Amino acid sequence: MRDWENNIRKVVPYTPGEQPKNTCVIKLNTNENPYPPAPGVKEVLSNFNTDDLRLYPDPRVDKLVNAIADFYKIDSSKVFVGVGSDDVLAMIFMTFFNSKKPILFPDITYSFYDVWADMLRIPYEQLPLSDDFSIVPSDYYKANGGVVFPNPNAPTGKLMPLDEIEDIIKHNQDVIVVVDEAYVDFGGESALPLIDKYDNVIVVQTFSKSRALAGSRVGFAMASPVLIKYLNDVKYSFNSYTMDRITIEAATAAVKDRAYFEETTAKVIKTREWTKKELKRLGFTFCDSKSNFIFAKPANVSATKLFEDLKADNIFVRHFSSPERINDYLRISIGTDEQMHTLIKFLENYSC
Amino acid sequence: MRDWENNIRKVVPYTPGEQPKNTCVIKLNTNENPYPPAPGVKEVLSNFNTDDLRLYPDPRVDKLVNAIADFYKIDSSKVFVGVGSDDVLAMIFMTFFNSKKPILFPDITYSFYDVWADMLRIPYEQLPLSDDFSIVPSDYYKANGGVVFPNPNAPTGKLMPLDEIEDIIKHNQDVIVVVDEAYVDFGGESALPLIDKYDNVIVVQTFSKSRALAGSRVGFAMASPVLIKYLNDVKYSFNSYTMDRITIEAATAAVKDRAYFEETTAKVIKTREWTKKELKRLGFTFCDSKSNFIFAKPANVSATKLFEDLKADNIFVRHFSSPERINDYLRISIGTDEQMHTLIKFLENYSC
């Protein structure tokens, strides 16, 4: 072994969901939106002057920051943007989670939290969800270096009521509390109003789900101007120009089209509710998802077997082999009505 | 002060060059390419199917990685891509610079190295350039936690011969040595062949200068497959999907057009050599730049005054107020022939 190997930051990397190259696949494995992005995005591409790509983008990303601020009716000093909410969350971990006390998050949750903590050498404690997969607010009353959880939670899709979130925040006034709302637009209630009441709260959202721009990589955080400033300081020290020129324009067009956003999220919700009824009829058990996926346990077959059989039939869903408590479940993204009909038909005819 | 403030990573952020919104400006302040990106980039935008943006991009970025590997005639296992070379360098600092010994870099150099080291709490030592702004290889013989320098150096534009680079590498077999070649395509000689001879060497390049895609944010590293794997492990632990779908296509088109690349870099070099002659005639002193900028000291006026007077005339160049040794200099990016004629004409008529 060479000496330089001692100085390497060795990590166990996150494994992203499969991105099959076969386009015949019904892709219900990475919680993408089944509908295209807002029509304005197409226009952006048609009208974009390619010659401008020779110039650096605006490092402050004012145009997109202002469009997000307008949409949520908040001041632009309360908005931070990044290359997907993963980038935003990684920056938050780097900026705010530098205590010697452990940060707290659920044991069953977005699988990146422990990856970031491990990579950044942040101590952490994973608090078990209750038997019905709920986050228990009182578990978060103990001394800690910060708190982060998704709402709705992943991969359960379960929503925590806003008063319980506020309870966690009230008991954690000495640390930063991050509410990761990647899926909140599909029927959840955002903690956004709490950023004005508590200066230690950060709400994180993404353009990858409800705004159908997973391929563009855009996420954002909303918090008090003081927190946004600290976050920008670290971001400018890491990579000043993260958002490229085309993405700034595309994401701005997407966020400006409120009607399309409301229409497509409503469609996803409607399809989800239909899928729930069908899955229930077929004996599946699942939490009452308020996200664009359903985390469901089949009745008479192992999740692993059903996962493989679906895949053989070109229907991709997601299976997590660990932790053990969830390996009987499959996470099924909500596709179009047609895709969900195909899935339900497969399950109706399925005998293992 | 609230308790959470103690846990914040406080940094002094890098200040990016001005991005004036006034388009009448002659912009010679951020080393952008005066020519547009390869024609294939325009085609990419015209033909891009916006609907695909709803899907996550390929986290491995195979298409672009393979195109870069083809261009440089190396195996794709030796290529890593990121969101600009700043992202690539930040990932390298995180992955490889984890020793308690200081990393070494020049005192006058790319102004981001100390920002990353400060932000990531990496100890460092800045080694003074010689009186003629040369990097002195023997300064880098001492024990250290890693070595990084640009070649050509920034903001001097001065090229270090390959045998001196190899000398530094030979004396640093126990650490990672990073050669940052942002400007190498404008007449420099790349250290790329050394990655096969030494498994501890990383060569970093960017699409922001010679490939005219500063607005797209693309950079890359080339090194032994072992180093690339460690780098990808950390990258996948930080942000799995950094490169967006449009940028992957645009950058692939750019790298595939070797003829356009050679033609436009040759034009920049020709304009640079003409500008050198003119600046010399006007009494400026400067290093023999092999980059797309000239770091020049005016004869009878302070750099600060000339900087302001140029700006008042809508000609933007870059002035660094620190370190003191360089505050008599201006960094002038190479624009089109027409832009450089305008600059020279201004200087001819200039009396302070």
UniProtKB/TrEMBL annotation, chains A, B:
Query: Which positions bear N6-(pyridoxal phosphate)lysine?
Result: 209
Fill in the subunit field for this protein. Answer: Homodimer.
Q: Which reaction does it catalyse?
A: L-histidinol phosphate + 2-oxoglutarate = 3-(imidazol-4-yl)-2-oxopropyl phosphate + L-glutamate
Q: What is the designated name of this protein?
A: Histidinol-phosphate aminotransferase
Q: Name one GO biological process term.
A: L-histidine biosynthetic process
Pathway, per UniProt?
A: Amino-acid biosynthesis; L-histidine biosynthesis; L-histidine from 5-phospho-alpha-D-ribose 1-diphosphate: step 7/9
Annotated EC: 2.6.1.9
The cofactors it requires, by name, are: pyridoxal 5'-phosphate
Domain named Aminotransferase class I/classII large is located at 25-346
The record, for Pfam families, names: Aminotran_1_2
Q: What PANTHER family would the database entry show?
A: HISTIDINOL-PHOSPHATE AMINOTRANSFERASE, HISTIDINOL-PHOSPHATE AMINOTRANSFERASE-RELATED
Could you name the domain of life of the organism this protein comes from?
Answer: Bacteria
Q: Which UniProt keywords apply?
A: Amino-acid biosynthesis, Aminotransferase, Histidine biosynthesis, Pyridoxal phosphate, Transferase
| Molecular-function GO terms, alphabetical | histidinol-phosphate transaminase activity; pyridoxal phosphate binding
Q: What is the lineage of its organism?
A: Bacteria, Bacillati, Bacillota, Clostridia, Lachnospirales
Q: State the similarity comment.
A: Belongs to the class-II pyridoxal-phosphate-dependent aminotransferase family. Histidinol-phosphate aminotransferase subfamily.
Protein source organism? Agathobacter rectalis
